[in-house]
Amino acid sequence: MAFQPIFDAEHGRVWGHEALVRGPGGESAMSVLGQVNDRNRYRFDQDCRVRAIELAARLFPAEDDLRLSINFMPNAVYEPVACLRATLAAAARVGFPLASLVFELTEDERVDEPEHLVAIVDEYRRQGFTMAVDDFGAGHAGLSRLVDLRPDLVKIDMHLVRGIDTDASRQAVVQAVVVMASTLDVVVLAEGVETEAEYATLLDLGVPLFQGYWFGRPTLEALSPVHPRAQHPELDRTSHEAEPQPDEPRHGDDARPVEDRPGLRRDGDGPRDEGDDQQDGTADDGTRDGAAGLSAHAPTVARPAHQGTSYRRLLASCGPFGSTQKSSARSSSRPPFR
Questions:
Q1: Distance CA 218, CA 104 (A)
Q2: Model-level pTM?
């Protein structure tokens, strides 16, 4: 199991980590997911949850009030209450707060019985979990799920994030998602952020939570530090160190072993970057030039008007990295980012 940080730009701190599936020897998510079938799907889903909770209890500093984000396979949940027993037992055994658990529903898995999915989400929310829709803007019935499930959090798919700093169409779509989510009292997270320019643009559009290789790569059974410039108040949009290095391929979330390449996600991240979502695995169909980042010569695009907090004001409001503000969410059924 690997962990990738989720950054809260409003408070300048790590908000949580997403658990991404890996083999016992660090094998890629896709190599592991390729062995999942109808016979073992339930056991795989349960084992991933338990392992993620056990590792998080050991790795997460108690004083940091971090959230653990776990992807789950809705088709592996035959009965919500019964299927939560192992999850609840594991959390109780290691002392992990239920209010710190986030369950992500990937858009990549087709669910033939929408009412069953609603029942799952209702029961999970009753237990005090935060519910998220992953890969929003891709996959199956994004808007329908947003309306039917009313999640606490939506994760904008990396396809909409990629190159958003120079793409007015992507900016317009993300702006619409932010406005719509605000109306529905849903928090937005941008995933697959690979450059400082993408981060700056998304901040301007009002996105508060971030995840991607620019912030930190998935790390096997350990917590990755966040890019120091993520919360730096003097971050400049016109120049920065290229990240990653020119000879390094860039992917929002990959499917190869951590040491070879960024990884996938899971306790559920299914197919994503060919192994990075819904138990790890949606494929990102392109890499970016390593030196691309924020360049003084990058083309500029007029941004649409929006109601988000301004980029520099957001950065200026960030406290020192790693500072903690205790959240009442651990004892509340409300999402911790409210």
A1: 17
A2: 0.71
